Amino acid sequence: MDRLRIGVIGLGWFGEIHCETIIGVPNLELAALCTRQPDRLAAMGAKFGVAKTYADYNDMLADPEIDAVSICTMWDQHVGPAVAALKAGKHVFLEKPIASTVEDARTIIEASKGARGILFVGHIVRFNPRYRMAKQAIDTGKIGKIVALSSRRNIPAAWTPTILNKIGPIVGDAIHDTDIMLWFTGEKIVSAYAQTISVRNLKHPDIGQTMYRFESGATATLETVWCMPEKTPFDIDERMSIIGTEGIIHVQDTFPNLGIVSSDKLHSPDTTYWPEFNGVRGGALRDEFSYFANCALAGETPVMGVPTDAAAALEATLAAEESARTGNVIRIGQG
Amino acid sequence: MDRLRIGVIGLGWFGEIHCETIIGVPNLELAALCTRQPDRLAAMGAKFGVAKTYADYNDMLADPEIDAVSICTMWDQHVGPAVAALKAGKHVFLEKPIASTVEDARTIIEASKGARGILFVGHIVRFNPRYRMAKQAIDTGKIGKIVALSSRRNIPAAWTPTILNKIGPIVGDAIHDTDIMLWFTGEKIVSAYAQTISVRNLKHPDIGQTMYRFESGATATLETVWCMPEKTPFDIDERMSIIGTEGIIHVQDTFPNLGIVSSDKLHSPDTTYWPEFNGVRGGALRDEFSYFANCALAGETPVMGVPTDAAAALEATLAAEESARTGNVIRIGQG
Amino acid sequence: MDRLRIGVIGLGWFGEIHCETIIGVPNLELAALCTRQPDRLAAMGAKFGVAKTYADYNDMLADPEIDAVSICTMWDQHVGPAVAALKAGKHVFLEKPIASTVEDARTIIEASKGARGILFVGHIVRFNPRYRMAKQAIDTGKIGKIVALSSRRNIPAAWTPTILNKIGPIVGDAIHDTDIMLWFTGEKIVSAYAQTISVRNLKHPDIGQTMYRFESGATATLETVWCMPEKTPFDIDERMSIIGTEGIIHVQDTFPNLGIVSSDKLHSPDTTYWPEFNGVRGGALRDEFSYFANCALAGETPVMGVPTDAAAALEATLAAEESARTGNVIRIGQG
Amino acid sequence: MDRLRIGVIGLGWFGEIHCETIIGVPNLELAALCTRQPDRLAAMGAKFGVAKTYADYNDMLADPEIDAVSICTMWDQHVGPAVAALKAGKHVFLEKPIASTVEDARTIIEASKGARGILFVGHIVRFNPRYRMAKQAIDTGKIGKIVALSSRRNIPAAWTPTILNKIGPIVGDAIHDTDIMLWFTGEKIVSAYAQTISVRNLKHPDIGQTMYRFESGATATLETVWCMPEKTPFDIDERMSIIGTEGIIHVQDTFPNLGIVSSDKLHSPDTTYWPEFNGVRGGALRDEFSYFANCALAGETPVMGVPTDAAAALEATLAAEESARTGNVIRIGQG
């Protein structure tokens, strides 16, 4: 087999982006689609020329000509399709966060043990070449031992009114930087303190600021603002500084790599994560799918997207959210 | 009188910079110098052509031909000269932090009440045109109501081994951003949480990360790293983002305004705070001294460098340091 | 005398900025105003509380209580007031370009020889601390010998419809960078080639691109765009790279030092040249006036704003304009 | 067939990078290697596990199990292998510049007419997502009509002592920006003027500055410096501004996207063109090879890497070099 036949479960905006990306990966074949919304299912089937469409993921999983699935359902609806797909022997590309509770994450990880397919969790930022090259520099000792980190991951207000009724910015976005910080330090997080503020009175607060302590004493801050104003140039204002005993790494924002001043505004579009050219997505998301496909086809266990790493990032961000709710510093992993 | 005759008390590296700045301000006359170190006193007297030199500030204060003093002694030695100068009827330019304890700050403020001279505390960042223009934009409503802030103020390791045995980065430097945040929001800080880490095992930790909550619920993080490595381009890596309900302001770092690549390194020197040309300092420090001189000569009460503002910034940073020591969130101003 | 009483001749937008700057310089007194437009004269007299107002600069120059003048008339109306002021023994601050022809520049320089007052030409960019610090680095050998330079000085279209009927972008703005390049290299320019393009069909083209050859063989390009679109963040998009045999200096743009995202756009206001706070201008323009006042009061010949330097910059930019008109490479100073 | 078996001809530093990239493209198989240097051939064969190695490209081309070749010989040795490969029915990926003379370019293009394989010229910058997205914005009218452009493409001195004895910076590197400008404007270049300067007295000058005029009157400058000093942070200092009647696009440099401050220097490595992770290259070079493979496998004529476009860029840069040699403005395409 040199092509992986993949079905996408969950066809919201990001499920569609998955599809637009999969069609650009030579050893992937977009073979099936699944959503409970019939109109959306028909539209996506037509758009991508995919004949196999399902309202129930169990029907898709029963098809022996499907080798793999990508799961883009809401974060609190991951357990069902992920466990079923693993039981059905499929390779699983599961969007982050791995689940909405630490218990659910464990259930999914449990199901992956002994499964015939691989379980890969989509922590895409590890496929951003800037972070990946930073990791290489850290691993070769260029900055000594990490003592402090700070990050930002801010997005426009226009993108978030719907999502903020489902997930907040700390678990939704700071989880990326949490995962990267765990990767860079190779350490555990021992405590979390966070503050949030609600700007638009949606279900979750618009802004989160988080502080972690790592087991070596290293300290970190993380900023996630989900309400940047209309005229912000940024699609993502993304930065990280990693301070070591011998050096510093600055992963800067994607701005001002490309600034387009039109009659409307200055816009600095994302060119890194899933840039679209002629209807096909490239960037880090394609690299992530390629990595997944290559591991699955070669029968190799991935060293990126590792489920236990994803669970650790989830645990830390959930602790930060608890801190924001209670006003207390939350200790992690001490019971 | 259209020139203010000023004496400088404390002639460490920053006292010397004060002198280099004063000589460039038309309505200031550098008239006297004071330090307990005889060699330094002689050297500075010769460098600046100042005949009146004193080992004891009381002798300087007794001179009726001195109108004003700038006080650059260590932060825990402010009370003596500041109170004495105010009692002697001199105008006082007092370096930040106003004092090393809230009590000492109150003693100094008490002494200023009814004094003939003005008391001005050197919170220089308010004279950085970028922050000052940001304040104008905030006051004219351009970004709505402030809901979150984040700042950085990092300096090279080579600058700090001595100072870190006297003061830490939060009270020493985050106090600048604390003052600016208080100025921008017009609010009080109600709690502080901070984490520090010691890299070089000096008396104070090299790195501080601080989180504040403001009375409106606005949240803020502040980073202060006093151990940037040798090859960092920055003299000061200084940034602030101010997130409002209607807009955002980014006060960026001074880099890369001027980058000088020599055979040694890429260096981005400070051109804002006290750039030196032909032995004379300009920039924000000169603007600050001009403001002080103009107020003193005109008999006007300053609206910048206000001692009670300085005391509020001190209180918040001391609370942050207490938080870092104890691991607790510290409530402010509730007793 | 420790204050220079100065009158401003020409009260267009920049004459007004001169006034707003002069009132913030302690050893300058804004003592008189002159314009042929009666309404403007009355309005400016009222705004600045200046009683001495003149329709004819000769009347101002006849006043023995005026020590100095700043001349802000259009560039082709410099000779009259400049020569008359020098003959009247006044110190002269003359805006750039020194004149509209090389002959006129020579006439003015001739008049300054043996004059009682100093003649200073307002090449403000030499007072931008970034260029000034770059000059220091060059003079101390940090980048070796200069072999190439490139610059940009672009401004918004909204600022230029009127001015473009009086002067073009090469003589109007590239003259700044020309002067700086002459200052940095210490060389003469031997040839100029330029291309322009007219976007809005005004009297002068909106855009100029210029290339110089210096006598050592060093090569330079200069970009001046006077039609940046409405949503550009820049007040001035200003940059220069200076490439030496041993190093490089990058003088970057003023963006993104301060970025203000309001409901309208992202704006990066100028904080360097003439920032205004409470009705008074600071920045490089104030430094320039301070330098002028200090030289005049001390009876020292300025080493900045030197008229022959200004004439050399004028000659090079006029040659570039001739090149753009004719399509030929223009040799300079060879006859 | 769903995999293209490709051989690489020319195994200098860039031939090796081609190999490192090809092995990461699923529908390419690195099947053969060719160089006249036996040691290098053996080493590369061993490194990539490729059994088919050739000293003479004709032997490689005789192999029916080779579907395609990439040609990385020196630019003046393109005609031989390119024409032979096309005659042998292979698909050809030819590095830029297409050839070293306009006549050679025509010979190669002639050979491609009626050939069974496609001829693709490796103008990689079109696969940089920032330029590609800029092209999209231009095509959708976001900036109106292009009236001026300026570009920079500067690299460190340490990279260039060998190459500067083979090719100069204008044909070697400004050809990238020339191709992009031709792509963005959709116009022809009608004249070129250029100045060069030799810093290290190698065969070709280290620095080139070029000015083009386009048929619509649009004007452009291009800077190429091949001698940036050791401590420059840049791998490539790459920028372009595209000024339109309704907007502007700024394609900024790759710095400071990732800045690594180690004990040696601040380094901003390229993360865009061919970043290497675990021995495999990604970035624009992989995208370029994927595009080539997809076109070849699908039997589609490429719309990127079009040989006549490559010839037009070559002609303009050769005209610029002639201008630099003669001091004259060179007209293009007028007979």
From TrEMBL, chains A, B, C, D:
It is an enzyme of class 1 (oxidoreductase). The keyword Oxidoreductase applies. Keywords: Oxidoreductase. It comes from the Bacteria. SUPFAM superfamilies: Glyceraldehyde-3-phosphate dehydrogenase-like, C-terminal domain, NAD(P)-binding Rossmann-fold domains. One of its GO terms (molecular function) is oxidoreductase activity. Residues 131-249 form the GFO/IDH/MocA-like oxidoreductase domain. Its EC number is 1.1.1.374. Residues 4-123 form the Gfo/Idh/MocA-like oxidoreductase N-terminal domain. InterPro entries: Gfo/Idh/MocA-like_OxRdtase_N, Gfo/Idh/MocA_Oxidoreductases, GFO_IDH_MocA-like_dom, NAD(P)-bd_dom_sf. This is UDP-N-acetylglucosamine 3-dehydrogenase.
